[in-house]
Specification:
Keywords: Membrane, Signal, Transmembrane, Transmembrane helix. By secondary structure, this protein is mostly helical. It is built from 14 helices and two strands; from the N terminus they run ααααααβααααβαααα.
């Protein structure tokens, strides 16, 4: 409820700024003639603050799974850049990934940190294969339980304090936007887009608060009470988790790892989380949360509905893209539910397939348009956009 009130206030202040030229002229006078009293900000300040927040929301916030031990420095860099690109284009996918790992980490009879380490491929057998399935865990759990939580945390490149500082940075940006709304100062389209990243970043960081950061080398654990790896008894054709099959990669993003087999791998896939009892724990809750986050992400962009745009074309591109991103999760959820309960499954499945295809094509285009428009609209900002927040208004004084 508080979120929707905030979106309403953002929309209201955008329309207020656009519809009252006196407010613009007064802000322009303050910005150009009275900067010694009322602090101002430059275009560089706006861009730098937004880019720093976006970087913290994408690069710094990413807690990747343990990579293949043979990957070089350049390959590791490209691996993280690809994940960063996914986060920028569709951050709700990363939220879903974090939610799946968070839910799965709660299922083990160990600490949350141990659970995350299992999910990220942090424990490997003596042969170097990830201990990353429900069937493997009973044979290796006694050895995993003997490993101290502090030993796992020691492998992390970040601690709770550093993660807390990163969360505080996102919350600070949100606070600045709220303060601008309170003082009826306009928020640029770039700041609106950054605000959406900041809100999602807080969710990602909280979900991954106990997950080790940037672990490069796994921990070897030994089997107990059994002589062989339980997976070796299965008659399964090994498949490489680095398969170039596009459907496998798309399925992996959404939590489908049927193609993955640890006996033929030395690391888990990028979006991997352990399935319990043949399915994701709290699957429906996770799915609802992901789609809800996607709607929130698009709705925040809709808050700039009445903002000043340099052209009508840019205004309508922003509006259409924002509405699609906010509405698509709802449409996809409805089509999926209809496909499950419909009598004529062929028609329902066709609708679901069309909806999925539209999402794979249209959704990235809308996200790219919003990113591009966030920067192109900076060429024509109202003078009041350069007026900084007067924080003394929030300090009790006589």
């Amino acid at each position: 409820m508080l979120f929707w009130i905030f979106v309403f206030l953002l929309t209201r202040q955008s329309g207020l700024t656009q519809g009252h030229p006196d407010l613009l002229s007064r802000a322009a006078t303050e910005a150009s003639c009275d900067c010694t009293i009322n602090s101002c900000r430059t275009l560089f300040d706006i861009v730098w603050g937004c880019l720093a927040t976006i970087f913290a929301c994408t690069w710094v916030a990413l807690h990747q799974n343990v990579p293949d031990p043979d990957l070089g420095h350049f390959a590791l860099l490209m691996r993280k850049l690809r994940m960063m690109l996914v986060t920028i284009i569709a951050p709700e996918i990363v939220v879903g990934f974090a939610a799946r790992q968070f839910a799965s980490a709660r299922q083990f009879d160990v600490s949350r940190t141990h659970g995350f380490f299992c999910n990220m491929g942090g424990f490997v057998s003596e042969e170097g294969h990830p201990v990353s399935t429900e069937k493997q865990l009973p044979a290796y759990m006694p050895a995993i339980q003997k490993i101290k939580k502090a030993d796992i945390e020691d492998k992390s490149k970040g601690d709770t304090l550093s993660k807390g500082v990163a969360i505080a940075q996102g919350l600070w940006f949100v606070t600045q936007c709220l303060a601008r709304v309170s003082q009826q100062l306009p928020i640029t389209e770039l700041e609106v887009a950054t605000l959406a990243f900041a809100v999602l970043s807080v969710a990602i960081r909280l979900l991954w608060l106990h997950k080790p950061l940037d672990v490069q080398q796994p921990i070897i654990v030994t089997r107990s009470e059994v002589d062989i790896d339980p997976l070796e008894e299965e008659d399964i054709t090994p498949m490489n988790n680095d398969s170039n099959d596009f459907s496998h990669k798309i399925g992996g993003i959404f939590g489908n790892h049927d193609y993955y087999h640890p006996i033929s791998s030395t690391s888990v896939p990028s979006f991997y989380s352990i399935e319990i009892d043949g399915k994701d724990p709290y699957g429906l809750v996770t799915l609802a949360g992901v789609f809800g986050v996607g709607t929130i992400f698009g709705s925040i962009h809709c808050a700039a509905w009445n903002a000043l745009f340099p052209s009508m074309a840019e205004m309508w591109m922003w509006r259409i893209s924002s509405v699609f991103i906010a509405a698509y999760p709802v449409l996809f959820t409805l089509s999926a539910l209809i496909s499950d309960v419909a009598i004529d499954n062929d028609i329902a499945d066709t609708v679901l397939l069309i909806c999925t295809g539209a999402g794979l094509v249209v959704y990235p285009i809308c996200r790219l348009l919003l990113i591009i428009l966030s920067f192109t609209t900076l060429r024509s900002l109202p003078p009041s956009a350069f007026v900084d927040v007067n924080w003394s208004n929030y300090i009790p004084h006589l």
